[in-house]
Amino acid sequence: MSEDALIDGLLAGKHRALARVITNIENRSPGYRDLVSRLHEHTGQAEVIGITGSPGAGKSTLVDKMAATYRERGETVGVIAIDPSSPFTGGAVLGDRIRMASNVGDMDVFFRSMSARGSLGGLSTATTDAVKALDAFGKDKIIVETVGAGQNEIEIVKTADTVAVLVPPGSGDDVQMLKAGILEIADVFVVNKADMDGADRTVMELREMINMRDVSPIAGHHGADVDPGAAERDETGPGDDEADPGWEPPIVETVAKNGDGVETFLETIADHAAWLAESGEREAQARERYAAEIETLLREDTASLLEEELDARGGLESYVDRVLRKETDPYSVADELVAPIEACVRDRRE
Question: Tell me, which fold does domain 44-279 have in CATH?
Answer without folding.
Answer: Rossmann fold (3.40.50)
